[in-house]
Design brief:
The chain is an alpha+beta fold. It is built from 4 helices and 3 strands. The chain has helices spanning 7-24, 38-56, 84-104, 109-130, and strands at 2-6, 60-65, 68-73. The longest helix has 22 residues, at 109-130. It is globular, with a radius of gyration of 16 Å. The two termini are 21 Å apart.
Length: 136
């Protein structure tokens, strides 16, 4: 099974989170990302990918390209493969929140912690799905 992650989709999700934070904050200032931030974003992106890889271990291997990443999962034969789509959506959502938290660390640490705490629930859901087995 392969989970494909599109980098631009994850970055767009981070943009949406930033815009929502701006709407909810008193001063309404978004923490925007632009093309000048690409070099600064790259280590945050890689750290987020590694964080998800650690969560998917011991089932996954990761390969990274310029456009995103792929996680190749070697699941047991009795894994509930009906969960494949849900696992992919959760993994993508996890990356959006992880990248947003890293992006906010320097400027809004309280908001970064909120995204991390929300991601803990996603991590638990991913873990449950990884260990789902078909009934004999």
């Amino acid at each position: 099974m392969t989970i494909r992650i599109d980098k631009s989709s994850v970055v767009d999700g981070m943009h949406r989170n930033s815009a929502l934070l701006a709407l909810k904050s008193e001063n309404g200032v978004p923490i925007a990302y632009n093309d000048d931030d690409a070099q600064r974003m790259e280590p945050l992106w890689m750290a987020s990918l590694d964080e998800l890889l650690e969560l998917l271990a011991p089932f996954a291997r990761m390969s990274v390209t310029d456009s995103g990443a792929e996680y190749l999962l070697s699941m047991p034969a009795n894994w509930d493969d009906a969960q494949e789509g849900t696992l992919g959506r959760l993994a993508s959502g996890y990356l959006v929140a992880a990248l947003t938290a890293r992006w906010l660390d320097a400027v809004r640490p309280d908001s970064a912690m909120l995204f991390r705490s929300l991601n803990a629930n996603t991590a638990n859901a991913i873990n449950e799905i990884l260990y789902m087995r078909k009934k004999p």
